Amino acid sequence: MKKSFIAGAMIVVSTTLLSGCVIHVGNASAMDGNDVSTMLGNVDIKSGKHAGDISSINGNVDIDDHGSAEDISIVNGNLDMQSHVTATRIDVVNGDIFAASHITVTQDVETVNGDISFDSHGEIGGNIETVNGDIHITDVTIEKDLATVNGDIDIEGDSVIFGNIVYKSSDSKWIDEDDHMPTLSIGANVTLHGSVILERPVDLKIENKDIKGKVIVSYADAK
To answer: Chain centroid to CA 192: how far?
Structure first.
């Protein structure tokens, strides 16, 4: 997961940089298509408008219907995307990601301490990954893996995952002090082309018989 934007947010090249305010892409506050960086402020991409790269520290990012952006990087803030939004890559530390229907992300979607939720007809060209957050998807296509360490995963509807579903080992610096056994829930109509790889104990609630047969348990004390 990239974290270099934290330092880079202080360096602005052909970029709108504002602090302690709301940047509205779609009116006079920022030019359509420009990169946007902000500290202690929110970013609002208006309907049908396009932003370049977005970097936000201590602020939320909202993208209205049919809006778009390239790389979105947030520290201590949430990302809210309305329907038919497109983005290249999403990377959030300490914040949640909510995506309405028909969202397209061409590369990865990642959080550290934050939940990830995608509604119907979403398309992810890379991985969806979090450390301590929950993942909920409905009728979403993921081209690569879906992974977490400590979070619950809930996959519903006609979702399709071309990679693996992975629960990673929790022996890392990102361990949650209140670590608990997470739950993996998979609906009957979900399609998984890869495997379910468990590197730690997980409570399984899998309705699909084919997917039950794809579970690989790889931690030492598994029974």
So the answer is: 19
Angle at 12 between CA 7 and CA 17, to 5 degrees: 100
| Strand, coil or helix: 212 | helix
Q: What is the DSSP string of 32-45?
A: TT-EEEEESSEEEE
Sheet holding 183-186, edge to edge: 22-25, 42-45, 61-63, 79-81, 97-99, 116-118, 135-138, 153-156, 183-186, 203-206
Sheet strand arrangement including 35-39: 15-19, 35-39, 54-57, 71-75, 89-93, 109-111, 128-129, 146-148, 165-167, 196-198, 215-217
3-state secondary structure of 6: helix
Q: What is the pLDDT of residues 71-123, one digit of tens each?
A: 999 999 999 999 999 999 999 999 999 999 999 999 999 999 999 999 999 99
Residues of the chain with confidence (pLDDT) below 50:
3-18, 28-30, 174-177
